[in-house]
Specification:
15 strands, four-stranded mixed sheet, alpha/beta, Nucleoside Triphosphate Pyrophosphohydrolase, 2 domains, single chain, 12 helices, TIM Barrel
C-alpha cells in the first residue's frame, strides 16, 4: 500500500480552519462576498464565513461570523463539503455548511461588496481555489457511473437503462481494449450516447480520443495520456476530464482545464486486490494542491459520498456499486 508522506515544509505550515455558509434568498440565489483590499486574494468572491477560534465549534463560529460580517442570525444546516487547500504560508480547511434559515437584513458590515447570484451563474465569479470545488458540489452530481465491459451488449444496455432510470447523471464510458478495437463498438457507444442524451445525462468517453471527437461526447483522459495531450489540436470547447493517481497527474489535468478528475485508488478493489491505495488521508493530501473538482474512485459506493465530501471530494466514481447498487 502506498503511504503518503507530507514533506517537512508542508508539515510546518500553519493550519487554519475556516467555516463558510451557503446562504439562499427566497428566489434561490446564493450570497457571495468580495474579499476587501488589504486581505489575501483581495477582489475574489467567496462564500461568507470566517476562522474557527480555539475552543469554538464550527457551527458556533459560523453563526458568530455571519452576525459580525452580515448582520444576520443564522440557523446552520447540514455539511456540504470540506476542502483542504494549501496556500502560501498556510494549509486551509474550508468547512462549508448549508444555512437552513436566517433572519435580519443582509449588509456588508466590514465594507465588503455582496452579490446574490443565481446558482447557474456561480462559475462566472472569480473565486479563491478552495471555493471552486464548493461551486461544483452545488452544481454537479455527487457520483459518476463507470461502465463495465459489455460482454453481453443487450444485457449491458438494459443494465445501463436501469441505472439511468435510477438517477445516474454522469456516465464514464470505459471498456477494455479488446472491445474498443472491435468493429461493433462505435455503434454501441453511439447508442449509449443517445440513451443518455434522452435523459439529459452527460457522457464522457474514456481514453478513446478519436471516438470522442467523432461523436461530440466529452473525453475522459487516462493518466498516461495527460502529459502529451494538446487541447489546441482538438475541437474547441471539447469537454475534458481525467483519471489521476499522482500530484503530477493532477497538475496536468489542471493545466488542461479539465472540468473534473478522478483520483484514486482510495481503497482496494476486486479488480486490483493487491494494488496500491491512497486512503482518505492520502486523497486529502493530494486534494489540497489543486482546485479541480475531484471524484474519489476505488472500492467506493454511494455510502461513501459523505466521507468523500469530508475529505474534499466532489463525490465518488464507481463501477460495481453504481451499476448494480447495493
Amino acid at each position: 500500500m502506498n503511504e503518503i508522506r507530507i514533506t517537512d515544509p508542508d508539515f510546518l505550515l500553519r493550519s487554519v480552519h475556516v467555516v463558510a455558509g451557503v446562504i439562499r434568498d427566497v428566489r434561490g440565489r446564493i450570497l457571495l462576498a468580495r474579499r476587501t483590499d488589504g486581505r489575501d486574494l483581495a477582489g475574489l468572491w467567496e462564500f461568507p464565513g470566517g476562522k474557527v477560534e480555539p475552543g469554538e465549534s464550527p457551527e458556533a463560529a459560523l453563526i458568530r461570523e455571519l452576525r459580525e460580517e452580515l448582520g444576520i442570525d443564522a440557523v446552520v444546516g447540514e455539511p456540504l463539503i470540506e476542502v483542504p487547500q494549501q496556500y502560501p504560508g498556510k494549509r486551509l480547511r474550508l468547512d462549508v455548511r448549508h444555512i437552513r434559515s436566517w433572519s435580519g437584513r443582509v449588509r456588508g458590515r466590514e465594507g465588503q461588496a455582496l452579490a446574490w447570484v443565481p446558482l447557474a451563474q456561480l462559475p462566472r465569479y472569480d473565486m479563491p481555489p478552495a471555493d471552486r470545488p464548493v461551486v461544483a458540489a452545488l452544481l454537479q452530481t455527487d457520483r459518476v457511473l463507470v461502465t463495465p465491459d459489455p460482454i453481453d451488449p443487450q444485457a449491458w444496455l438494459a443494465a445501463l437503462q436501469r441505472a439511468l432510470d435510477a438517477g445516474a447523471r454522469r456516465v464514464n464510458l470505459r471498456v477494455t481494449d479488446a472491445t474498443r478495437d472491435s468493429g461493433d463498438w462505435p455503434a454501441l457507444a453511439t447508442r449509449v450516447i443517445d440513451l443518455c442524451s434522452a435523459k439529459g445525462v452527460e457522457v464522457r468517453i474514456h481514453g478513446d480520443i478519436a471516438l470522442a471527437c467523432s461523436t461530440g461526447a466529452g473525453l475522459h483522459l487516462q493518466a498516461a495520456q495527460l502529459a502529451a495531450f494538446d487541447r489546441s489540436t482538438h475541437p474547441s470547447g471539447m469537454r475534458l476530464s481525467a483519471s489521476c493517481h499522482t500530484l503530477d497527474d493532477l497538475r496536468h489535468a489542471e493545466r488542461l482545464a479539465c472540468d473534473f478528475a478522478f483520483l484514486g485508488s482510495v481503497q482496494p478493489t476486486t479488480s486490483h486486490p493487491g494494488g496500491s491505495t491512497l486512503g482518505w488521508t492520502g486523497f486529502a493530501a493530494l486534494r489540497e494542491h489543486v482546485a479541480l473538482p475531484l471524484y474519489a474512485i476505488g472500492g467506493l459506493g454511494p455510502r461513501d459520498v459523505a466521507v468523500a465530501r469530508a475529505h474534499g471530494a466532489q463525490g465518488i466514481a464507481a463501477i460495481r456499486s453504481l451499476w448494480s447498487p447495493v
